[in-house]
Write a structure and sequence with these properties.
223 residues; alpha+beta; 2 domains
Length: 223
């Protein structure tokens, strides 16, 4: 009887101890799994951010060089060829960088919108500004009006930017140029009362006494 009681107690104690050890092992495994999942999620998030930044940097390079959107896939193939030759282990990371033609198009639009917003924020603090206008004809015989902006804020910081490039489809008169300038100014929130000077390229449409831009500006209250 004594032996039976001792054996039954041992079985019970062993069962409890084994149950606790199993639970402890399971708890440790779950914690390790959670930690691994968290690390994996952080790594994936970091990888996605890096690939996104790389995509925007390539798009910016293409825009500055005036290259077509479809050069994106070509650049990606070149990068993969170089990486597979120099360090093949990095090839999967480079292959995830989105550089299709449509992606490059969206990236450049995003960059342009961001630059427009930055310029609009600076314009709000302008004390005064001036504009310079240059009209020329492209290879398609279409008149292109370039509008340059230069302004100064309260801290005397000078900002110089290309405000806009506008195509003049039909005629190129002083009235057409004035309408284009007004459209560009209203689109970014330039206050006319802070306009200090207008510089032109000396073309008749700009400086003509009868129908030139400066003549219209003299008669128009907005200039």
């Amino acid at each position: 009887m004594i032996l039976q009681k001792m054996s039954s107690r041992n079985v019970t104690n062993n069962g409890r101890s084994s149950g606790k050890s199993v639970c402890n092992q399971k708890g440790t495994t779950l914690k390790e799994t959670t930690l691994n999942l968290t690390k994996t999620g952080e790594e994936d998030e970091g990888c996605c951010e890096r690939t996104l930044r790389a995509s925007y940097k390539v798009a910016l390079r293409l825009a500055r060089a005036g290259r077509p959107f479809m050069d994106g896939p070509l650049i990606k193939n070149i990068m993969l060829d170089v990486v597979e030759t120099m360090n093949p282990t990095l090839a999967p990371a480079y292959s995830r960088i989105p550089l299709s033609g449509m992606t490059i198009h969206r990236r450049i639009n995003d960059i342009a919108e961001n630059l427009h917003e930055q310029l609009a924020a600076k314009i709000e603090n302008f004390l005064a500004y001036s504009i310079a206008l240059d009209e020329s004809t492209d290879i398609n015989d279409t008149a292109q009006l370039a509008i340059f902006l230069r302004g100064v804020d309260d801290d005397l910081h000078v900002t110089e930017e290309l405000l806009d490039m506008i195509s003049l489809k039909d005629t190129v008169t002083g009235a057409d140029i004035l309408a284009a300038v007004e459209m560009a100014a209203e689109g970014i929130g330039l206050p006319w009362e802070k306009l200090f000077s207008v510089t032109t390229d000396g073309a008749p449409a700009m400086c003509g006494k009868a129908k030139g831009l400066l003549d219209y500006c003299g008669k128009n209250s907005t200039c």
